[in-house]
Every structure is written in structure tokens, then in C-alpha cells.
Predict the structure.
Amino acid sequence: MSVKAEWIAVDWGTSHLRVWAMQGQRAVAEARSDKGMGRLARSGFQGALLELVDDWLAEAPIDVIACGMVGARQGWVEAPYAAVPVAPLSGAPIRVPDTDPRLRAYVVPGLKQVKPADVMRGEETQIAGFLALNTDWDGVICLPGTHSKWVHISAGEVVSFQTFMTGEMFDQFSTVSVLRHSVGEGWDEDAFREAVEMTLSRPETMAARLFGIRASDLLEAVEGSVARARLSGLLIGAELAAARSYWLGQQIALIGASGMSAIYAKALELQGVPAIVADGQRMTLAGLNAARKLLEH
Amino acid sequence: MSVKAEWIAVDWGTSHLRVWAMQGQRAVAEARSDKGMGRLARSGFQGALLELVDDWLAEAPIDVIACGMVGARQGWVEAPYAAVPVAPLSGAPIRVPDTDPRLRAYVVPGLKQVKPADVMRGEETQIAGFLALNTDWDGVICLPGTHSKWVHISAGEVVSFQTFMTGEMFDQFSTVSVLRHSVGEGWDEDAFREAVEMTLSRPETMAARLFGIRASDLLEAVEGSVARARLSGLLIGAELAAARSYWLGQQIALIGASGMSAIYAKALELQGVPAIVADGQRMTLAGLNAARKLLEH
């Protein structure tokens, strides 16, 4: 309980807050809460952070470096998007004004693409972490998640990217829509593979096949695990169809939670596309380490 | 208030209950509540109905003919699906056992398609109503709604059909997903047209363009009416792409609420496909009238 931090790394998304006490490049303690940016007004951020890190602080101020939706217009401080093509950490993080004197808090800016319009906040830090650990890496990074991203990397810069709502769609369909009556726990590899092939080869069928998950359950009492894998496969196949120009003939790195990355790796493998997998949390920490080197003090 | 019904027509869906006091083929009074099938246990159906129709009843029993999800396994009585190809009203409605002695209640069976698996409950009655009013009509009927249906009609039979979750997807995306921050009231015809063309010609882009609605709002502050029309257009364009084999070169009839039918008619018109429009409620009543002729008493 007497851990003191040299600096503090923060991953602050819409629905989660995760903090690490850092000594050099190493995390020596961590904590988390559900006080994501979506639940906080501007005046609430510092308190939500201090709840988790108060014990780690000394009297002298230390650096706090945060990435994610915390930098949105409604966040702790707005960290304006940098426009691609640009390095994932394109400049110094933005200082949060008027904090507790024990903190010097900074937020990493997100990236934007003007045409087609697209944005990211948080993924740029994971990408920077991956590139710090894999110098001179060119290729495509896929970051599966609530809003999955496909990102073209060349010469250390984000050249272009594309966001898909696949994770959020899976959550909606499996918990809000009529499909919730059919989707259960577990997994069925054959059903997943078949569904991926379906929408990847004929993406227009997605709209038609979704209700089929419910209808086949009503007519044939399909297992909940089959329905789950089928729903996931239809959505990921449609994403892969739309992202084909990103992955075809490319070197792919997946950054994310291990379960989700494994599903994407399987779907890519079915297309004969090999992918390396990097742990999302580890990349976040490596990226925040890289961001710290940019601080101007 | 002293209306008496010769018989009672009932449209009983998942989330609504609508009843009409009928004299011959004419509705002389109507009432509605939100006691849809989704909110009721089997023991609750009769009470929910009597709340609306009690004043219309006499001592002698009268016929009550209902269509919709009321005939599902968890409904008032299960009215098993008839398998296509089959006439939309393929046999006598199913009698509900053990009712109040003032009622002789019946439920119209839905239709099923074995492969690809699909089901309908309620739309078969609207189709029967349309065919009763348009004898010898061959072609394709589209019924837009929460779960829109495309139905191939030949020689008075439903030959095949296909369900799309377009309406439910629109509701989810516009009220639950991150797009809810961007979708507002109103309508923009140009945005709708552009979005329909996009996903109809390249259906794989739907997965990619959905998040673009949010991103372009963040970067360019898009009007809520534009975002609404764009979301609707992306979803309907994708539905039309998947339903192409239904509408291409066909005579189309749209059955539904007038606003929704007008949107689909516009999307079809953009493809050079003319459609006639029939009012959903009127078709339901015509179909229940047709079902009444099948009663065996």
C-alpha cells in the first residue's frame, strides 16, 4: 500500500478508467473504475482520478499521461485531433489546466481523417506503442473492439484508417434486438466460419441473414452458442469485406483484448492472411511511455 | 358509446394491441392499448382484450379474429406456421380455448419458409387483404416496418419471402448506439438518396459508412436531419441490395404505414422501379375480413 508512482499512466475511455503507477517504463500497481468519460462532467474528472491514485501521490507534482475519450470536447481537456497522414503521437500531449498541485496532467490528442471522415482517440496511443516495440514496421494494424479500426502504417505514420461499429453492433443485436432471445453463451467454430464466408463473399446478404438467426431458432431450436458465433461471423465477415483493401496482401498486426483478437485472427486465417497479435493493454502502456518522452518540461 | 359489434377484428403485435368493432366488413369503432404480446403471459391476453372491447359485447357470443404475434408459442394460443408455398390464409384460424362465454376467439396462423429459414406473423393477413382487394395480382409485396418483408406472390400463393431487420436496426442505431448523438429530427432528401445509392451499389460499404455518420458530425457538425436521412438511406440501400432478386423487373406493392411506405417508394423510384402503395391498417382489416370467411361454424 506504500507504492509511490514516478508517474501515472491512464487509459480513459467512454465507459472505463484504468490507471497504472509507473516507475520508469514499468507498471508497479494498477487500479480501475467504471467512471468513464461518458459518465463525467468536466468538473468530475480530477475527482474520479484521485479516487484511484491518491495513495500513489507524493507532495512533489508528478506527471499523469492519459489517452482515450478523456481528450474529447466533453472530456477533461479537449486535445484536438491531428490530421492524417501523421505520426500516431504527432506532438506533445495537451496539459490539463488548474489541477491539484500534486498532478501535472496531460492528454494525448486523437487522430482525424478528413475524407472519408473518421476519428480515433486511444488507438493512436496503442499504435505508437506497437511501433515503439516494432521499429520500422510497415503494414496494417487492426484494432478490434467496440469500434474496430483498420489502420494503414507506412514509414512510422498513420496514412489512413477506417472505423467499423462491429463491436457495438454485436452488443446491440445480442442484447437489445429480437436476436437476444436466440443468442446464448458459448461458441461454435463451424457456424462462425460459415457466417464469415457468407458475408465476406456476398456482403449484401448481411441484412438478410441477421433475421435468419432468429427464424432458424424458431423453426429448428438452434443452440445459443451457434447463434452467437453466427452473429459474430456475419458482422466480422461484413467488416472484412469492407476492409478488403486494407488486409489484402498485407502484413497484419492485431491489437486488442486476447479473446477478440483471436476471433479476428481466425477470420483472417480463413482468408489465408496471417496476423501477429499484440496485447492491447501492453500497447497502451508502451504508447503512454512514448508519449511521456514528448513532454516539454 | 352504445356501439355493439357484430364481430371484432384484432391486430395484436409484440408491442401493440389494436381492435375494431365490426359490422359486416365495416369498422364502426376502434380502440388500442400498449398491451402487446411481449408484455403478456398467456393468462393475461383475455383481460387485455376485454379492457378495450367490453362495451362492444352482447350476451350472445361473437367472433373475435386476431392476427400477429398473438399466435406465437408464447401468445394467447399457438397458431402453428403454414409452410410456403401456400395461400396467405391457408386454413381456418385457430380457436382460443376456454374464453369468456361472450367471445369466440380465433388467431390467424403465420407463415414459415424452411430454407432459408424465415417466419412471419401478421403480414400474411395484410397480404391476404391486398389480394382480396386486387384479385389475380402477381408480383412482389414489400411490407416495410420493424422487420420488413419482401414477398413473392404468384397465383394467389406466397411463393417465398425474406425478412430484414431494417426498422429495428434504425431504431437501435438512432437511439442506443453512438450515432444517437448525431441523429436528429427532420429529413434531408439529398442525403437519403446519396446513402441509398452508396449501399445499393456497394453493400459492403454499409459497415464502414455507419460510423462515418458520427465522424462527419464530429468533424463538420452535420445537421441531425442529414444524419437521420443518411442512416435510413444506408440501411434501406443495403436492404434493397440484398432484396434485388425480389424487386428487379417486378411489379411492386408496398403495404405499411404511409410515411415508411413513402420512403421505400422513393428508394425504389431511384432505381426506376414503380411501386403502388396500400395502407397497412386497411389491408389488415381486409385480411381479417377474409379470415372470417374461413371460420367453420
Remarks:
- The CA atoms of residues 70 and 191 of chain B lie 38 Å apart.
